[in-house]
Amino acid sequence: MAEMYNNREIEFLSDDFDLVRDKDAKISDTKLATKPTTFFKDAFKRFCKNKSSVAGAIIVLILVILSIVVPVFSKANIDKVSTIEKFLAPKLFEVGHGIKDGFWDGTREKKHIVYDMQNEVPALSEKYSVASVKQSLVRCDVDKEPTLIDVASQYASGGLIVFATDAAVDGKDAYMISKPIAFTNKGGYTLHVEFGNEEGVANSKLGEYAVYLKYGEKPEDRIYLRGSAEEFSKDYSDLDVDIQAILKDKKMSSVTAQVTFEIKSTADAIRYILIKNVTLGGGERAKNLDMLAEVSFDDASQMINVADVNSNSYWACSGRKGIHNAELYYCDYLIDTYMLVYGNADPVTYSATELNGWIQNGWCEYDYTVGPESFVKLTDDCPLDYVDSQTVLSVTKKLSSVTGRSWGYRKLGYDAMPKFILGTDASGFDLVKRAFAGLLTSLFLGVVVSAFCFAFGLVWGSISGYFGGRVDLYMERFCEILGGVPSLVVLTLAILHFGNNFGTFVFALCITGWMGTAHRTRTQFYRFKGREYVLASRTLGSSDMRLIFRHILPNSMGTIITGAAMMIPGVIGTEASLAFLNLGLQGSRAFGVMLSNNQQYLSLYPNLELFPASIIALLMISFNLFSNGLRDAFNPSLKGSD
Amino acid sequence: MGKYVLKRIGLAFVTCFIVLSLTFILVKLLPFERPIGGDPQQIAYYDRQYNLGYVYRFDRNMDDVYGPYLYRSPENKGRSNYYYMVPVMEQYVRWLGNIVLHWDWGSSKSIQPNVNASVIIMNRLPYSIKINFFSVIFSVPLGILLGIWAALKKNTMTDHTISTMVMVFISVPSFVLITFMIHIFAYRLGWLPSSWPADTSPTKQKVLGFIIPVFCLSFGSVCGYCRFVRAELCEVLESEYLLLARTKGLTRRQAIVRHALKNAMVPIFPAVLMEVIGLLTGATILETLYNIPGIGRLFLLAINYKDYDILFVDMAIFDTIGLLAGVLSDMAYGFIDPRIRMGAKK
Description:
The structure holds 2 protein chains of 2 kinds.
Chain A: E1 2-5, E2 8-11, H1 39-49, H2 51-73, E3 107-116, E4 121-122, H3 130-136, E5 137-142, E6 147-149, E7 160-164, E8 174-177, E9 181-184, E10 190-196, E11 204-206, E12 209-214, E13 222-226, E14 239-242, H4 243-249, E15 254-263, E16 270-281, H5 289-295, H6 300-304, E17 316-317, E18 320-324, E19 326-328, E20 330-336, H7 337-342, E21 348-351, H8 352-361, E22 364-365, E23 376-377, E24 386-392, E25 399-405, H9 408-411, H10 431-467, H11 469-484, H12 487-498, H13 502-528, H14 532-539, H15 544-565, H16 567-580, H17 591-599, H18 606-634
Parallel strand pairs in A: 11-16
Antiparallel strand pairs in A: 1-2, 3-4, 3-20, 5-20, 6-19, 7-16, 7-18, 8-15, 8-17, 9-15, 10-14, 10-16, 12-13, 12-15, 21-25, 22-23, 24-25
Helix pairs in contact in A: 1-18, 2-10, 2-18, 10-11, 10-13, 10-15, 10-16, 10-17, 12-13, 13-15, 14-15, 15-18, 16-17, 17-18
Chain B: H1 2-28, H2 39-52, E1 55-58, H3 63-66, E2 71-72, E3 82-85, H4 88-102, H5 117-152, H6 157-171, H7 174-188, H8 203-237, H9 240-247, H10 252-277, H11 284-289, H12 295-305, H13 308-336
Helix pairs in contact in B: 1-13, 5-6, 5-8, 5-13, 6-8, 7-8, 8-10, 9-10, 10-13, 12-13
């Protein structure tokens, strides 16, 4: 073999060369000392080193598991609205057995609530009976001093009646008039009226007045008791009149008359008088003592609340009738909301036939000759838990009915007193179960939408990024236009065109959601498609498919996966935000719908809003930690830096 | 450069135009929405629609030609007017004509019946701008300072605390934050009003009313800036030229102020610029939850009440501002960093 080199001919002979190595020696790579690893294994290893990310992942996992487990295992009702059970307080401890009264034991504290002096309970909504309120009350501190009010209230007492002229009817006197009463000159009838003489009723002045018995329509059919037709009185001292004596004076044996107060109207101001009480008395021979007692009143507040015009105690009035300085007591109380709803305070009466039926069924035992204490409940089928009293027919000496009580929770289908750890919402649903069921719905929505967006975005981004050029330009412009339509508008249009349901929602979120993944994939493809290994593979004749799926995609997977991991919480967040704008999956169980429904009770029952809000915040934070760790783990440039 | 700017602005307008056109056509394909109010208002509304060219008006029944009529006005001298829907594409052409020739965006159907859409927007814009303005003033310096602080104290307790707080506040959805703020400061403590004070309320109340919205809007951007600045500055602090600056004898402070900060600001400035332009757009959720009469809430009202004319103006504002902000922030890169040449080929 001869070659030319610098115009000299050099000849190489095989004998001139010696083999460095032994001819028969086997040459092979030594085995790697360390274990081989794949990209994903390595990423996982590095992810595990990042403690906060692992914590985030675990919290996400726990929340996911809870959202699956809680709705399955909790028996609480979250389908049928039960308004009677709404707004129960959170309960973990039994009343009196907790850390302190009022802490997480199903009680709710209320301050400055009107106190019903008559029944000795706080004035609650009318749907709770007095007995059940009494039973549920844990603590009730009534104000020592009453609050003086000028507004009629059924819970107020005392005070003075403000009887005033109507400013609008200027020059016309005002009357306050009782029902007609039959007086005789033998009945020993008396009238006692106490007046108040305080100034200070808003926008008006004390006025001149007259009191008389009116027994006809003519001006002379009046017996003046204070003042006269010509001159009205300004005397606000107590009025004590012996009607019997007056009738005798006037030589009238009997008269049916109405007690009338008249106020002189003046142009300058509204005039009023204050009446504390009116007592009509009668002697032994008075036949209408009941009537007298009804017309009389010693409690101005009680009188002002008489709304029934036909009632004897109603005082008709041509001017204005109000109350001044009525005494109203307020109280601060702590009430067991569970007892209020599920308690056994309200008595129920059952007939003897019903009771006998239960005895025959073997549900309970009862011997009416012994009395209520013989009642024994045998099975849970028996609707009655306690017997308080019985009625026995006087003739046959047979049982006619029994009155007893039973636990309210049994009527609502529970076997024992329910316990809702975080209370119930406006529909009477257990908040815990409702929240996790909602979370499940939202997670499902998130997974479905993310899966679609991920798949579609990946394909779109790959095509756009791999082929580039004109294809890329058009695809990008398309994205820009689609991305330019606000997602709210897309969603609204979808809802308006297809109706508000799960499918529409998924569709609307997908339409705008895939562009993130597409953009990320495209960038990655641009980054990797010019690399040497791709070029090498292309030179060897690989098809586009092989280049995309074997070479470029696996390398760009890390970044794309990280982006996708953030998509699920993103969708949940979007759903919740939309629900807040009343555009969510209305009527469904989705988390955001619950959040936005509970928003209105924020001031009264903050737990309803704060618990779900905390859950979604926790979920978002954990997802963020998780995906931050994922991003770092998939970033090869950070390898070995930690 | 100039050519590139013009090209970008032109493209932005084309995109905006296509988006608006698409929405217009899609929305107008929906069934016609009747206005609310008594007969005079309804007649006024239909007449306005007729003048804008969106409905036909006849003095006799034309059901056989145009399908069922939209509205029949009360009789006047034995005659009443019938209004019919104009085909969507024709409406579209007229809509464009009205905007281009008369700058007439139509009028409200139910939010403020028969008031010009642009007037309504103009009435509401100040509220959104005010809140955003204070939020930017508050959040930009605070966010940048926190970011710088965290970066300079990297991997110390300070940095960890700031980063954790930032992470938490960035993760928490805005409505959760607003809800908690309202609950604590308005209902529990009673320091702040629980919704936006009316225009007639006393000055003190009005000032207090700003606190919750401004805070809620700021939290997000403070965290965003902080994270951004920290990441940028950390990268710059590790670069070789900063090492060189130190080796040639600059103190740490000099090196950071003269070299690191300047370079770190390159991507931050456009972001700030974008936010300042974003002043004009309202925050829909905040405005809804806090009852602020801004254009963000208007957008939602328009959707809920199906008041389409308002919807279009509101969207036009959002789109234009969004796209222009994008263009401007791209430009800003080129201006503050000569190494970056926008629109340059490979």
